[in-house]
Design brief:
It contains ten helices and eight strands. The protein has helices at 19-23, 46-51, 62-79, 97-109, 128-131, 141-146, 177-180, 183-194, 213-218, 235-242, and strands at residues 10-12, 85-90, 115-120, 157-158, 164-167, 199-204, 223-230, 250-257. An eight-stranded mixed β-sheet has the order 1-8-7-2-6-3-5-4, sandwiched between helices. Helix 3 (62-79) crosses helix 4. The relative contact order is 0.24.
Length: 259
Amino acid sequence: MKDEDASGVEDNFENVLEEAARNMQHHSTPGHSIARMNDGSHELVPLQLEERRLIHREESVRRQSDAFREIRTRLLGIAGQQNFVTLVVSVSPRSGGSFVARNLAAAFAFDEAKTSLLIDCNLRYPSQHRALGVEPASGGLIDFLEQPSLGIEPVLYNTGIPRVRLIPAGKARENSGEYFSSYRMRTMLDSLRCRYPDRYLFLDGPAIKGSPDARILSDLADFVVVVVGYGRDTPAAISQAVTNFDPGKLAGVVFNHMP
């Protein structure tokens, strides 16, 4: 793993707030499970995962995987038994927010009793489909929000990672706030989470600096994880960034060591 190397990922959850769990909305969920679903796609081998800068269970990336497992453990400890929606955003562009989002989704899916759904909400600069080697032939998030009658299934893509699915951003849009604040967006997330109690949703949002979208998306999430580019973002910038979010949702800060 080279760019945005996971070996330097450290979590700083000293300020995790217990009240975040109490503030979560409770949803009833049916007794279904997709934890052991067959994706119907070729499963990527460890070398392929490393080429995509993704963690796996083998010894070659143990240190990296353990860092993301630790973040997973902290989030689960706050939330208790209920599944949840996590927004992952970086303080500034190119600090590794998307990298952390997809690897955190992968870490949750290490548990065979859980599944992850990664949603690319960076509509100006989407990257998850390229990073995961997915060709979004049927469109993505924006396509569904503009034409929900098509259904959600066409924009749910296999990733080659067991129990991890992707909804890519879809059509590029400059003004994305109107989509994120829409009734359709909220209804979609509620449906995606409530349908399966073992499904954990991860929203890959744009950088906090220079865009209101991160704050808008935080209204849809149970938790917010802020990614800091180690040596790139100043303490003042970090302090300013976290003021955008409800303290009851702010799960913590991840320091991503850039190469």
